[in-house]
Write a structure and sequence with these properties.
This protein has 187 residues and is an alpha+beta fold. Strand 3 and strand 4 form a beta hairpin.
Length: 187
């Protein structure tokens, strides 16, 4: 009898955990200017799943040049939380200002947009120049299925011997251009 009761408790707890995972979405959190890295660290320390896309740039001072990492999207950090935690936990972190909203509610960032940001921020090379004879139309939706940009989704914006794929992230109006061979595409 106790075995059946324990098994039911286990199933109920597993169901609760599964529902909690399903409720979590990605949200864009607006931060104070130039505070993205500190806010990101505070989220991680507080047990909040967070993502800060960084890109490598070269900065020149009067006496030296230096390669540094800067936020891909200024003043934004992305968090994956239950919607109830936005106001009770996330916006209580020092350095946060507000959550990006759509129609008065916190705007959900789609998983594929976060995936696109991860791919773009992790790969410094923005072009691969190879030729191919696969036919792709301008405006066609494509997904890169090989190489360093594997998983990236976007639209074909130019066909001139080289295939140019424009990744249009509906998130904050960010547009990134990646030139890649058609043989790496899944149409």
């Amino acid at each position: 009898m106790n075995f059946i009761k324990e098994e039911n408790n286990f199933i109920n707890n597993k169901t609760k955990i599964d529902k909690q995972v399903q409720l979590k979405n990605w949200y864009a959190i607006y931060t104070n200017p130039r505070a993205e890295k500190k806010v990101f660290e505070r989220f991680i320390e507080g047990g909040i799943e967070a993502f800060l896309p960084l890109e490598t740039v070269y900065r020149k001072w009067s006496d030296r040049k230096k390669k540094i990492k800067v936020p891909y999207i200024k003043s934004y950090v992305f968090v994956r939380v239950d919607p109830k935690e936005i106001y009770t936990k996330v916006l209580k972190v020092y350095g946060t200002v507000t959550v990006l909203k759509y129609l008065g509610k916190p705007a959900i960032v789609r998983d594929y947009e976060i995936k696109n940001l991860r791919i773009l921020s992790e790969n410094e090379a923005k072009s691969i120049e190879l030729t191919s004879d696969i036919s792709i139309e301008v405006g066609e939706d494509v997904e890169i299925d090989k190489g360093v940009f594997m998983g990236l989704r976007g639209k074909c914006v130019r066909v001139n011997g080289r295939k140019s794929i424009m990744i249009e992230s509906e998130l904050l109006g960010i547009v990134s251009v990646v030139e890649i061979a058609a043989k790496y595409l899944n149409c």
